[in-house]
Design goal:
Largest sheet: 4 strands, mixed
Order of helices and strands: EHEEEHH
Oligomer: single chain
Low-confidence stretches: none
Helix content: 25-40%
Length: 78
Amino acid sequence: MTDVQRVQIEYCTQCRWLPRAAWLAQELLTTFETELTELSLKPGTGGVFVVRVNDEVVWDRREQGFPEPTAVKKLVRD
């Protein structure tokens, strides 16, 4: 496990994706409760749904579709 510290989930408010972002945030906080120092939800527009770990994009809906929590957890862990 690398040093996971900050995770940001940027989601589209126009698309009403807050529940999806909050659910993913809860999954990550539960799994990495001792590794995370910060998890933020960032409102965006234009269909955005991006997950960043320490400012690096690890998942982008436009390229990869919506993430399953297990896939994001693996990316965060790796």
